[in-house]
Amino acid sequence: FGSSGYSSSRPPPFTQKNPYQSASGCLANLATMGISRDSRHKHRHTGGRRNIHQKKRKFEMGRPAALCKLGHKRVRSVRGRGGNMKYRALRADTGNFAWGTEHVAKKVRILDVVYNATSNELVRTKTLTKNTIVQIDAHPFMQWYTKHYGIELGKKGKKGHGAEEGKEAPEEKKSFKVLGKQQARAAGQKIDPTLDDQFQTGRLLACIASRPGQSGRCDGYVLEGEELAFYKKKLEKKKKN
């Protein structure tokens, strides 16, 4: 027996108290720990601690947030419960956006992230989440409007398009039947002046309605009316500050 009281054939007891530097088995357990959505680790509403009577379950598993950024398209597939698939959009720069009052949707480029109610940090990092306000390219909608109504949007120096109603594009020849259709459509057509001002800049404010981290798509709708006025007011206030 040595001075410690233990024989040389038997190893001394393990006295390390730091769990991160204990045994290799503990390190392996720490490496396999993940995000869990269970409530067993929480205190009771009275403040008491719960007894852990079962291990973590696969259906309680959580995953890291996708935090889709503005950039060249990059999507990863994730197998979910029941064999269902989720699609993580890690980067996205295009999407289908609908113009509600005109009942038309176009695939357009997402140019910039301008507002997010959650945090300005998501705007700085250009993160695309549901309900993010973005700027999109207006030219696909302008081309459709010219073809459908025979009116060119985005002409600077004019208020609205009243002076150009019924005027077709000069470089394209059209039959009398097509001209008649366009004039009939444009007869009762009115466009919001605020929206027309955006067409002059070539950029439209739009809201993302899909969940890029779940569906792998970044689709939404063009802001109009009271919603457009609300977010323009928010952006003006943000610029002043």
What does this structure look like?
- This protein has a five-stranded mixed β-barrel. Strands 3-5-4 form a three-stranded mixed beta sheet.
- A hairpin with a 4-residue loop joins β6 (94-99) and β7 (104-115).
- 27% of the residues lie in helices and 22% in strands.
- By secondary structure, it is of the alpha+beta class.
Low-confidence stretches are 18-24, 162-166
Helix content: 25-40%
The major sheet is characterized as: 5 strands, mixed, barrel
3D shape: elongated
Briefly characterize the structure.
This protein has 241 residues and is an alpha+beta fold. The protein is built from 7 helices and 10 strands. A hairpin with a 5-residue loop joins strand 4 and strand 5.
Helix and strand topology:
Blueprint: H1 24-32, E1 35-36, E2 61-62, E3 69-70, E4 74-79, E5 85-92, E6 94-99, E7 104-115, H2 120-124, E8 133-137, H3 139-149, H4 176-187, H5 193-201, E9 203-208, H6 212-215, E10 220-222, H7 225-240
Parallel strand pairs: 3-5, 6-10
Antiparallel strand pairs: 1-2, 4-5, 6-7, 7-8, 8-9, 9-10
